[in-house]
Amino acid sequence: MRQSNRAMRQDAWTTEDDEILAEIVLKHIKQGSTQLAGFNEASRRLGRTAAACGFRWNACVRKQQRNIIEIAKEERKRSKSERVQAQMEGGDLDHPTATLMSWAQVLRFLRQEKNTAQEWASRWRNAERQATEWKNRFRELQDEHRRIRDEYQQLRNDYDTVAKDYKVLVQIMERARKAAILDDTQLSEGFMYQIDEFGNLERVDHVEPMERAE
């Protein structure tokens, strides 16, 4: 039956309940398990919810068992270290036939580590080479961009100059056209137009022709 469907205790915690909770949680700590797993086991033993066991542990029991908890953690570290050492020696710590690694196993292990190190070194060199190539390419693109920008600026300046010259030329041609279509009435009034050295039209008085010499 699921825990949620069971009738859970709601009464106060007793000293015996605290001792059972501490025993279970400390066992899980020593074995390298989690406190949550300990709360779940204590829940089944005590008939309380795992949340209630966790709250009781954090609120009261952990403070009372502080020194014992530290000892359990040290024991867990020592047990883990022994298991790792046993695996390196080629066997299980609790197995009666556990033996040291043979020289062949040692050499094979060292070769694997060497190959792994060489592979990572090769990847590192490739990454450095690619980084250098991308840096050089970036500098080349910077130089190209600078050159194109300078050319564009020069072309823009040339365009502005030509545009100004064209505008002045159009103005001169327009003034010349107006001067060319002056009718006889304007000429008879005694003045005419001429273009100065700057391309501007100026009005000049009509000059009477010189009298013919007798």
UniProtKB/TrEMBL annotation:
UniProt signal peptide: none
Protein name: RsfA family transcriptional regulator
Coiled-coil stretches noted in the UniProt entry, renumbered to this chain: 62-89, 124-165
Alphabetic keyword roster: Coiled coil
Ranges for domain Myb-like: 5-61
Keyword Cytoplasm: no
InterPro entries, per the entry: Homeodomain-like_sf, RsfA-like, SANT/Myb
SUPFAM superfamilies hit by this protein: Homeodomain-like
